[in-house]
Amino acid sequence: MASMIESPLAHLSPEEIEAIGREFDAIHDEVFAELGDRDRRYIKSMIELQRRLAVLGRALLVVSRFPPACVAGTAALSMAKILENMEIGHNVLHGQWDWMNDPQIHSSTWDWDTASTAESWKHSHNYIHHTYTNIRGKDKDLGYEIMRIDPHQPWHPVYLLQPFYNVLLMALFEWGVAFHDLDLDAVRSGEKDKKQVLKELKGIWGKARRQIVKDYVAFPLLSGRRWKTTLLANATANVVRNVWAHAIIFCGHFPDQTYTFAQEEAADETKGAWYVRQLVGAANIDGGPLFHVISGNLGYQVEHHLFPDMPSTRYGEIAPRVRQICERYGLPYNSGPLGRQWGSVHRTIARLAFPGGEPRPKPGPYRGDEVRGEGELAPAAVASNGASSGNGATGRSNHEVRPSAAS
Amino acid sequence: MAERGAPPQVHPVQRRVLHAMRAFFTPLLPDDYLELVNPLWSTRELRGRIERIDHETADAVTITIRPGYAWEGHRPGQYLRIGVVVDGVHHWRAYSLTSDPGRPDGFISVTPKLYDPGVVSPYLVKHAKPGMLVRLGGVEGAFTLPDPPPAKALFVSAGSGITPIMSMLRCLAREDALDDVVHLHSARTPGDVIFGERLRELDARHPGFRLHERHTASEGRMTPDELEELCPDWREREAFLCGPAEMLDALTKRWERDGDCDRLHLERFQPIIGGEGSEGEGGTIRFARSDVDAEAGAGQPILVAGEEAGLELPFGCRMGVCHTCIGRLCSGKLRDLRSGQVATPQEGEMVRTCIHAPEGAVTIEL
Ligand SMILES: Cc1cc2nc3c(=O)[nH]c(=O)nc-3n(C[C@H](O)[C@H](O)[C@H](O)COP(=O)(O)OP(=O)(O)OC[C@H]3O[C@@H](n4cnc5c(N)ncnc54)[C@H](O)[C@@H]3O)c2cc1C
Ligand code: FES
């Protein structure tokens, strides 16, 4: 379907797009030339912290009889699982730490504590999603083939149920992701052969079996008479991790601010245009340093999409330069607090369960930094639509829609 | 996968116990947690801790290493690949073992000499400290003493080329087999002779060992013709040569002219890479795992050349972003097609085939 809203790319000349490409390339090269001990120390100590937390959590659950200790154990284990998935697993599998040439902390050898095999994740996420980001019909993460998350997607009665199965997806996110990686649509259309699917299913089964044995058999057995507490705690930790990952990941591309693209819009695009598409197809979440660590620095989704293979710790450092580029070229820089981003995602899921809908109003060009409470610089120009339900509104196809309150 | 240490000699019972405990650690291994307690306990790769550092000359040190598990042994003259982390990046280099394989404490030693513009030797010579960790690769090399040792031997070395020979001499001395050995060694000054004191001591103590030191700063370099004079019976000796490329090339020619090349053994510290005319763009790519050779034209990525040769190679974005296409480079020079820069990546480094073209002959494990 042709786009209902014009992307910011339409306002840039080919020369400007090329210049943007050069500027982003320069940031990338500068950071990569600088990587060294400091970065290695960070990821090594993050991994160590995560393992110590996991040991602490498991030990508290296995040996302790005291209820507050069980709560502490569950909390430690949940946090360990979150760090393992987000700041460590996701980022290592992106190849962010491959430059260290470390035989263990390497995208070709790493495996993570989820139902997805590293192999199929790298294909569906690193390649498909990060290359075709927000291109309708190509980026399979746009609604994960089960949800209508963009008004351009045709409606089907099954979507009436999406607000409900979305809740289920939150709790079981890792399983949803694993089956999503199988890409059953591609099997139906014949793009993917059955043998490959079978191989991947086997992989998921292997990972699932080992995770289930660990969390629901081995550790409960080790706890003896208190096996029930341990089992419950392990299940809780898995669900906490799933809900958190779901929240952060849904806030990466589905808040109101982001753009999606028709396949024609992205055909034959240059590196510069690719950068711009990544820039406006993602949205950040504002937060302090602790928030960014436990979200795997995906609060810097914009920077992550510009440079998926850059060590995550560098995203916060380059963010001011990315914002400067946005300001100079009149491009939006999507960001907002977690509550607002999450709210707008779930409003869209509810609205688009029904037929129709239009793209939400977009923020205009980024207008410079304003100093926030925590000393974190945050974008000034973000859409805040208040109570108006923009999905039904018309005449908003201009990309420079300004927030009504601010204009 | 990046290069890792050799598999250590772990007791089978320990292996079995660790294996049985895997269910508690998946997708990690018990190893990943044991390492937190002591990194030497890794059962996946052999590591070692630096025990001592002894200064041999102004720019060479001997590093004594305690291996994490029992040392599997080596033959005198062999070398070891050592992995160290310099500014966050793992680098691997070969160093001849300078220790006697029969050392009672089970320690090993290597003796790096400073090559100032380099990466690893400055780190080992200037920054390494006792207590630091190194990774120990497999023991390799055919430059070894035959067993039983030859009746008459000739060693010719220069600079750091003394290192594999030192291991041989130590072994011969321990077995009391220094019966008829001539050693011609070159260094800039007497103070620059690595292991100088020990060599002179051996010379004084063993009548069957004759050391000839050549100090090139005052006496100039040794020429192959001087061989006649310094060791007239060189043709009858089993010869072991280690030193700079020019010295090895010149001496090899001498042996080819009127010596017995079967009795000539060489060790090169800078193996010859690439063929003639390596400035030319493009080159031959050897895909080692697929057992296929491909020709790449100017500026053609390895990935494309492989595909044109009929290979099915992994790829994703084809623009250097996703790292799906990586393969382990065994040898050769590469041109980064994004920047045009030509570099010799580390042996064993993972490289992205979609953005690199060969410069001359390369071998990749794909
Ligand atoms: C079988 C084997 C055994 C070896 N044993 C020893 C040993 O016992 N002691 C020892 O000191 N070294 C030994 N080396 C050499 C060692 O592996 C390293 O090459 C050396 O320490 C330099 O490493 P680097 O990281 O400092 O330099 P690099 O960063 O690797 O150097 C950069 C470039 O300089 C070139 N280069 C390296 N050294 C020299 C040199 N001396 N002169 C001119 N160009 C050079 C390299 O080819 C490379 O292209 C051995 C090498 C081999 C193959
Ligand atoms: S194919 Fe994606 S980095 Fe090479």
Chart the SSEs and their pairings:
The complex is a heterodimer of chains A (407) and B (366).
Chain A: H1 14-34, H2 37-63, H3 67-93, H4 118-131, H5 162-171, H6 173-182, H7 184-188, H8 194-222, H9 227-253, H10 263-266, H11 271-281, E1 284-286, H12 289-294, H13 301-306, H14 315-329, E2 335-337, H15 338-351, E3 369-371, E4 377-379
Parallel strand pairs in A: 1-2
Antiparallel strand pairs in A: 3-4
Helix pairs in contact in A: 1-11, 1-14, 2-3, 3-9, 8-9, 9-15
Chain B: H1 12-20, H2 30-37, E1 47-57, E2 60-67, E3 79-86, E4 89-96, E5 108-110, H3 120-127, E6 133-140, E7 153-158, H4 162-174, E8 181-187, H5 196-205, E9 209-215, H6 216-219, H7 227-230, E10 238-242, H8 245-258, E11 264-267, E12 283-287, E13 292-296, H9 302-308, E14 326-336, E15 342-343, E16 350-352, E17 356-365
The structure holds flavin-adenine dinucleotide and FE2/S2 (inorganic) cluster (FES).
Describe the structure.
The complex is a heterodimer of chains A (407) and B (366). Chain A is mainly alpha-helical and 407 residues long. Chain A has a domain of 254 residues. Helices cover 56% and strands 3% of the residues of chain A. Chain A contains 15 helices and 4 strands. Chain A is globular and about 70 Å long. Chain A starts with 13 loop residues before the first helix and ends in a 28-residue tail after the last strand. Chain B is an alpha/beta fold and 366 residues long. Chain B folds into 3 domains: 129 residues, Elongation Factor Tu (Ef-tu), domain 3 (Beta Barrel); 115 residues, Rossmann fold, CATH 3.40.50.80; 90 residues, Roll (Ubiquitin-like (UB roll)), CATH 3.10.20.30. Chain B has 9 helices and 17 strands. In chain B, strands 4-3-6-1-2-5 form a 6-stranded antiparallel sheet. In chain B, strands 12, 13, 14, 15, 16 and 17 form a 6-stranded mixed sheet that branches. In chain B, strands 9-8-7-10-11 form a 5-stranded parallel sheet, with helices on both faces. Chain B starts with 11 loop residues before the first helix and ends with a strand. About 2% of the residues of chain B have low confidence. The chains are: A mainly alpha (407), B alpha/beta (366). The complex binds flavin-adenine dinucleotide and FE2/S2 (inorganic) cluster (FES). The site of flavin-adenine dinucleotide has 20 residues of chain B, from strand 4 and helix 3.
